[in-house]
Amino acid sequence: MADLAPRSYLFVPGNRPDRFAKAAASGVDVIVIDLEDAVPATEKKIARAALAEWLATNSTPVAVRVNDVNSEWFRDDIALCRAPSVAAVMLPKTERIDDIFLCEFAGKPTD
To answer: What positions does the domain HpcH/HpaI aldolase/citrate lyase occupy (predicted)?
Structure first.
């Protein structure tokens, strides 16, 4: 039998690592760690570092909502998405097919 499509998504702000484990234990179909709108500009690097630390010690599959391809944070965000437990990448504000191709090197499906 084929896998069912996800029914529930839980968005967790990337600057709230205290919520990552709670989300993993929630039973939700997809955990989305949001590095974009949920994180103030002054906390982007801190959020990325917190997620990297969590990914290094946890195997729970997650999706990561990265910052816009035109932002100063995009390349570092997408590089983080190479982690084995990142199952998908969510691209905000995508307007062109080329935006999607920029993520290709991460080797992850895009939503």
So the answer is: 7-100
Domains and CATH numbers, the chain: 9-105 (3.20.20.60)
- What whole-number distance in Å separates Cα of residue 32 and Cα of residue 65? 7
Other CB atoms within 10 A of residue 31 CB: 22
Is 108 within 8 Å of 99 (Cβ atoms)? no
Two structure tokens written together for 72: 């100063």
Using CA atoms, how far apart are residues 4 and 20, in angstroms rounded to an integer? 24
Say how far apart CA 83 and CA 56 lie, in whole Å: 8
* pTM reported for the whole predicted model: 0.86
pLDDT tens for 95-104 read: 888 888 777 7
With a pLDDT cut of 90, the percent of the chain lying above it is 64
Give per-residue burial for 83-103: e unless 16+ CB within 10 Å, then b: beebbbbbbeeeeeeebeebb
